[in-house]
Design a protein that fits this description.
With 138 residues, the protein is mainly beta. It has one domain (11-131). Helices cover 6% and strands 38% of the residues. The protein is built from one helix and seven strands, in the order αβββββββ. The protein has one helix spanning 14-21; strands at 25-30, 52-57, 60-69, 83-90, 98-102, 113-121, 124-131. The strands form two sheets. It has a five-stranded mixed β-barrel. A two-stranded antiparallel sheet has the order 1-2. Strand 6 (113-121) and strand 7 (124-131) form a beta hairpin. The longest helix has 8 residues, at 14-21.
Length: 138
Amino acid sequence: MLPALDPPHFDFSEPFWDAVAEERLVLPRCSVCGRWEWYPTHAGTGCTGGELVWEDVAGTGTVYSFSVVHRSFLPGGRAHVPYVVGLVDLDGVDGPRLVASLDDRTEWKVGDRVHATFTNIGERRHPVFCRSDEGGDR
């Protein structure tokens, strides 16, 4: 079972959550140098004159690392452990890795190919990555 806890709401990350509600993934990219920025910040990019532009990205990738969480870090989370959190290298995104929920019914290995699915957790929709051989690429 996935944790039913939402991350905090920040205005600068709303484009990400708006896209997830539409079952899409977007990440911000610098309008000057093209560098992907994750996590987004209200400060923008490090380039003079650059601004963050939200672009659609692949819902597929590779598991870089993962951890099975057996002890809740947040109040109210005890009923939702264990769950799996991973770092996913998204296809076509050079640089940042997405911290993501991984399907907790799977025995994971570093290097597993994944695709995003979307589910309601708490108050909003969330991406959850599944192994690609368990349902095919989206």
